[in-house]
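Propose amino acids for all 512 sites.
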């Protein structure tokens, strides 16, 4: 029996006429349409030479067609590789060189990404990096790939896959060096979405308000796969806009968002209990939700936000309960089938209840490893199969997990992971800079704001605005520090290590 996630999705469809996607423009695609359109895109992929296990890289604006392309990759047995639409040409070149996709789908005009020229991408990168085909897809779902799909048959026999076969590769920022490609299998995605459907009590009657990007685990797998396996509908918005979402909530039953979304909703005076009267569940993830936001949201709407914890490599690990206490400041209990423990950082010694250490998880949700990085993969797993997340936390006497920090100083800003080492390397390349420390400090809107504290060479000066502009040519916009602050020297401990904890304390009010 095939373990292809799409086969599981198709087997669960109860009504082909039921709406799958509703867009802001009023367009509706039924589950029957989803089958036909994903079939057309799957046939298009095959006609372009895509074979099982081939990688298909996609950097395109959010649209229903992007989801149909994702599903087509599943059906064709290909490996889906979504790329953040903010990634620059330098970043994209690395991903393509590392993953070696046979097909790249990009926007016809991408400012700061493919530099407006898909044709140049084909000419400049294809020969060097082994990219066989380049096709385009615009924000309306049009483009050269759509033309091929429209001319293709809607019937496609989904290719059987084993549970351990790859379904997707998602790149995560590296704490040192380059990004790592997390290999996610059909079992990883199917098992986690199935658990979430039950745990969050999704049914075909639900309407999920979807304003998340679809190049990220949260919007692509947590939201979309859960909807598909439950048969519910997606109210599909290109992006989150707080001023528009109040009224949209009246037509939905569930919302998934990041803390920034909830903070911005609360900033709208018209956001009241009346606008949330049809909602049964608000879910938050990708970054810590402050207890203050949790409390204010409950007071304003009468509903407690359900916070959960996951990561690219594992999908979802824990969740506050649907029925039961949703404890502010915690990410809930381990999900069914997920084992979670707390270990001493470095040694791996298991810690007692209530002690803070590194979170380790094991279960069918945990990824297969890092693409073409066997040594790194081996270093991130214990001998008994537990994955070392790098997140620091503890488990209380009720079994609830709290995240108390992150190993290696990772920053989460606006729900996106940022690792300082990558940014520090880019800043250190500036001729005026002697050394840099990048930190995350509290930010009311983004959860954490990124700040670069730099020491300059003697006599050098730097213009903050110009430096940020230069960095914007090398880094995705969300990685560019919101502030660059110059100091005479950076604080160090007795071993000569820069004390980022001192800097975080010193600049904790920078964005307040």
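Proposal:
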């Amino acid at each position: 029996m095939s373990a292809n996630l799409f086969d599981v999705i198709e087997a669960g469809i109860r009504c082909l006429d039921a709406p799958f996607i509703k867009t802001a423009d009023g367009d509706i695609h039924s589950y029957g349409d989803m089958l036909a359109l994903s079939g057309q895109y799957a046939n298009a992929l095959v006609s372009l030479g895509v074979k099982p296990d081939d990688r298909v890289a996609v950097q395109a604006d959010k649209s229903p067609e992007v989801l149909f392309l994702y599903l087509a990759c599943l059906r064709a047995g290909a490996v889906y590789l979504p790329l953040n639409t903010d990634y620059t040409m330098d970043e994209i070149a690395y991903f393509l060189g590392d993953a070696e996709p046979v097909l790249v789908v990009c926007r016809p005009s991408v400012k700061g990404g493919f530099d407006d020229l898909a044709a140049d991408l084909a000419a400049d990168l294809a020969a060097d990096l082994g990219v066989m085909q380049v096709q385009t897809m615009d924000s309306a779902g049009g483009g050269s790939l759509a033309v091929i799909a429209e001319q293709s048959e809607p019937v496609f026999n989904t290719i059987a896959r084993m549970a351990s076969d790859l379904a997707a590769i998602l790149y995560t920022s590296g704490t040192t060096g380059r990004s790592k490609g997390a290999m996610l299998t059909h079992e990883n995605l199917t098992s986690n979405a199935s658990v979430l459907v039950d745990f969050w009590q999704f049914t075909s009657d639900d309407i999920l308000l979807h304003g998340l990007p679809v190049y990220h685990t949260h919007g692509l797998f947590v939201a979309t796969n859960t909807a598909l396996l439950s048969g519910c509908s997606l109210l599909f918005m290109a992006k989150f806009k707080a001023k528009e979402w109040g009224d949209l909530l009246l037509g939905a039953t569930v919302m998934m968002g990041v803390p920034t979304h909830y903070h911005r909703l609360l900033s709208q005076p018209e956001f009241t209990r009346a606008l949330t009267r049809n909602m049964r569940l608000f879910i938050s993830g990708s970054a810590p939700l402050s207890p203050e936001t949790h409390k204010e949201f409950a007071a304003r709407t009468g509903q407690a936000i359900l916070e959960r914890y996951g990561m690219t490599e594992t999908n979802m690990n824990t969740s506050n309960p649907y029925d039961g206490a949703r404890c502010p400041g915690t990410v809930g209990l381990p999900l069914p089938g997920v084992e979670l423990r707390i270990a001493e950082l470095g040694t791996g010694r298991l810690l007692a209840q209530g002690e803070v250490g590194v979170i380790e998880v094991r279960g069918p949700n945990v990824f297969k490893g890092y693409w073409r990085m066997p040594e790194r993969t081996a270093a991130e797993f214990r001998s008994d199969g537990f994955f070392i997340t790098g997140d620091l936390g503890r488990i209380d006497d009720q079994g609830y997990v709290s995240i108390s920090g992150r190993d290696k100083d990772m920053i989460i800003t606006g729900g996106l992971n940022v690792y300082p080492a990558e940014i520090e390397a880019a800043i250190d390349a500036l001729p005026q800079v002697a050394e840099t420390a990048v930190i995350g400090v509290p930010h009311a809107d983004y959860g954490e704001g990124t700040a670069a504290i730099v020491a300059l060479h003697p006599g050098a000066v730097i213009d903050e605005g110009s430096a940020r502009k230069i960095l914007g040519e090398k880094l995705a916009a969300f990685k560019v520090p919101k502030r660059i602050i110059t100091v005479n020297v950076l604080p160090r401990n007795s071993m000569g290590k820069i004390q980022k904890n001192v800097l975080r304390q010193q600049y904790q009010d920078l964005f307040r």
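The first helix runs from residue 5 to 12. Residues 193 and 275 are 28 Å apart (CA to CA).
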